[in-house]
Specification:
Blueprint (H helix, E strand, L loop, with lengths): L1 H36 L2 E10 L2 E9 L2 E10 L13 H17 L7 E9 L7 E9 L12
Parallel strand pairs: 3-4
Antiparallel strand pairs: 1-2, 2-3, 4-5
Length: 146
């Protein structure tokens, strides 16, 4: 009897993970459409490095942009963009540095944007673009070049 409850709990956790994964993919698709409408040129999606994954890499004119996409079904736990905390920003910075190094793009102007998708707002949801959401260095060092 105890084994059955444990198995049921594990299966429900796996289902929740699948739901979050599908929500994330839906959000990334919506973010790509939004960015393309705003004249971004998508270079790569789901770039993986030893440090993790960045959702979208794109050019906004001559600036290389690393985009983190956050999607929420409700605002019960806050706005989607609020989940891009200091730790998440550090991870994104490391991934971007890996990308720049391995693609020989040191010295290219870059920035970090966040696309927030709140599906609780309307049928389509509300898409918000936060340009230059954080800097390469978080200690008050200015400049977007690496």
């Amino acid at each position: 009897m105890r084994f059955g409850r444990l198995l049921t709990r594990r299966l429900s956790l796996l289902r929740g993970s699948k739901d979050r994964s599908q929500l994330g993919k839906k959000g990334e698709e919506a973010a790509c459409r939004f960015l393309k409408k705003n004249k971004y040129k998508i270079v790569e999606r789901g770039y993986r490095s030893p440090h993790g994954e960045i959702d979208i890499i794109a050019y906004d004119r001559k600036v290389l942009v690393f985009v983190e996409v956050k999607t929420r079904r409700s605002s019960e736990f806050g706005l989607p963009e609020e989940s891009v905390n200091w730790r998440k920003q550090q991870r994104i910075r490391k991934i971007s540095q890996h990308y720049l190094y391995h693609h020989k793009l040191q010295g290219v102007d870059c920035r970090y944007d966040v696309v927030s998708i709140d599906l609780s707002v309307q049928d389509e949801g509300r898409v918000t673009l936060i340009k230059d959401a954080f800097q390469l260095m978080d200690r008050g060092i200015s400049g977007n070049s690496i």
